[in-house]
């Protein structure tokens, strides 16, 4: 019989269709043909992007010129823009607001490379430092209330450019789904127990073991109990940390290792699947402490978000997370000592 | 500058990226190759589906034999199943529940036909009658709390079988997104104004005119103010109706006309796009009156639900609904008199 499971943080249900128990080889192939080599993100073609916002580059090299190893530019087709007045306007039952915020692209390497896990681990650290730098810079703008770092990979993951990159969108309103997690999940649980629901979740995962994927010095990777997608994997700081922007150098090294190792295993097991990588962190510039526990969510996109999911926010997942975690644990990769 | 708009019912925001103003020809082609002709939904192959639950068929013909014109069967890979005990079980921070419910497939015609709008209008009426019959039958099961009728069309819409069909999933828990609409949207608005937010929305749409698509005797079709998807279209009963299951014969005729006409126009304008059609109705078997206003939502799937949407529940829509509605209004189809 199928089983329903509830996400303890936001209250959403998933259906674990364990009868189907889809293993990696049961999903249709998602291998993609390489796209045009005409790539505006490659080193030497800096003039084809909007002027850079921030780059890690060799001393003495010019802005918007070669010599960088991680480079952030505005999205050419921004969802939200930094210049203008933030103004809300009501019209009968409707509210509208000027689209103030930011939409940036973080180009992870000047080489035309497609997959995140092909970066050396030191490069992954630099990418995480860039997330942190851009996050902290945008958080200084009082108009910004939430900063979403994310990565779309592969066609089914929504990537329109093949060259490996992440994005960052800063919004002037805390998204409803984030408020739901913060108010209904974190706050309600804390009022009842005095503890953080994510911290308790990790205690339980470490005792049960069956959904664990990897452990590093500062981070834990596991397939969540109420996984919406096959092989969904979360990476959480082992100690309670509210704000991604406050990540330490030690934590960056630890995160780089576990993130690269997780993606290596997902790529090996699922043949370079399409996915979304999503940062969940606290709202910024709000006059109260949400007590959130920041984390990363990796959502492989091997199943479709269709009518049922859009209508009910239930997800149907044909791969039990215990099976996914076991497969990911048993995929041996020797990437050197963990951090 | 992009504009943010809020859905007055559930509080979610969308970004209307009006600079891009994507018109129908700007979207990548979604035309699909016909798939295998080996179709288990075609008339004459009834033994290839699970035994039928209900069918409209010629007098004297047998169950699971030819002679039907609309036929409902269990989904071969059900998300939820009707037989078993509904039991919830807690385990530390987690809750799980047996997957009790129903998952049915409504085969809209015995002919191998791909598109909904190719049905004669009388056939559309029969399909709506089948929705109602199955809806009312399942609502009699006290374990069922929500009934989701939906249709996935095209690969990007999540359809795995080409032969035109809808689905119905009945769940033992009211989905969180439905509770959000009912409690936060409907109930809060009613406490403030004494009125239904959907009714007030229609008054405003009929005054403004610029998002209207079509009007029938009992229904209004318009592109919603906070459209998440390009050419998103909602169809609402013009008078306050809580429960889809109570739809009248007159309303069925009117809905069949406006639904078929809307799909004809979408198919013409967007070259048979992939889409989801989703019924939103009241929860069932709950001890209070949610005062919902049932309606249908058509979501063309020309843009991707990716990392930003998954992380924030903001949607980015490159086609302003006023532009979409104008294009749909001006596409002239002569389908006979409206109902």
Automatic annotation (TrEMBL), chains A, B:
Protein name: Galactose-1-phosphate uridylyltransferase
Binding positions (Zn(2+)): 39, 42, 112, 163
Family: Belongs to the galactose-1-phosphate uridylyltransferase type 1 family.
Keyword Ribosomal protein in annotation: no
Active site annotation, chain numbering: 165
SUPFAM superfamilies, per database record: HIT-like
The Galactose-1-phosphate uridyl transferase C-terminal domain, residue ranges: 187-304
Domain Galactose-1-phosphate uridyl transferase N-terminal, first and last residues per copy: 3-175
Top-level EC class as recorded in UniProt: transferase
Keywords: Carbohydrate metabolism, Galactose metabolism, Metal-binding, Nucleotidyltransferase, Transferase, Zinc
Taxonomic superkingdom: Bacteria
PANTHER family tied to this protein: ADP-GLUCOSE PHOSPHORYLASE (PTHR42763:SF2)
């Amino acid at each position: 019989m199928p089983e329903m499971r509830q996400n303890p943080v936001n209250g959403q249900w998933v259906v674990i269709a364990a009868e189907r128990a889809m293993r990696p080889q049961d999903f249709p192939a998602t291998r993609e043909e390489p796209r045009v080599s005409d790539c505006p993100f490659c080193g030497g073609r800096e003039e084809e992007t909007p002027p850079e916002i921030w780059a890690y580059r060799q001393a003495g090299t010019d802005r918007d010129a070669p010599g960088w190893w991680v480079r952030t530019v505005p999205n050419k087709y921004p969802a939200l823009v930094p210049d203008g007045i933030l103004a809300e306007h009501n019209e009968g039952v409707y509210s509208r607001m000027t689209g103030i915020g930011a939409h940036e692209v973080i180009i992870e390497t000047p080489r035309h490379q497609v997959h995140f896990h092909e970066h050396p681990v030191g490069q992954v650290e630099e990418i995480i430092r860039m997330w942190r730098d851009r996050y902290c810079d945008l958080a200084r703008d009082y108009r910004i209330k939430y900063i979403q770092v994310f990565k779309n990979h592969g066609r089914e993951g929504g990537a329109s450019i093949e060259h490996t990159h992440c994005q960052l969108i800063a919004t002037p309103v805390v998204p409803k789904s984030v408020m739901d997690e913060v108010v209904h999940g974190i706050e309600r649980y804390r009022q009842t127990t005095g503890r953080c629901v994510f911290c308790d979740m990790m205690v339980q995962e470490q005792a049960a073991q069956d959904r664990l994927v990897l452990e590093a010095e500062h981070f834990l990777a596991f397939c969540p109990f109420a996984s919406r997608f096959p092989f969904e994997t979360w990476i959480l700081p082992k100690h309670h940390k509210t704000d991604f922007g406050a990540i330490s150098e030690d934590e960056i090294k630890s995160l780089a290792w576990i993130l690269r190792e997780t993606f290596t295993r997902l790529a090996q097991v699922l043949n370079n699947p399409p996915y979304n990588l999503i940062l969940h962190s606290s709202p910024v510039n709000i006059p109260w402490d949400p007590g959130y526990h920041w984390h990363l969510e990796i959502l492989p996109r091997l199943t479709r978000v269709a009518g049922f999911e859009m209508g009910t926010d239930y997800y149907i997942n044909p791969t039990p997370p215990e099976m996914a975690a076991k497969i990911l644990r048993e995929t041996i990769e020797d990437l050197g000592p963990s951090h």
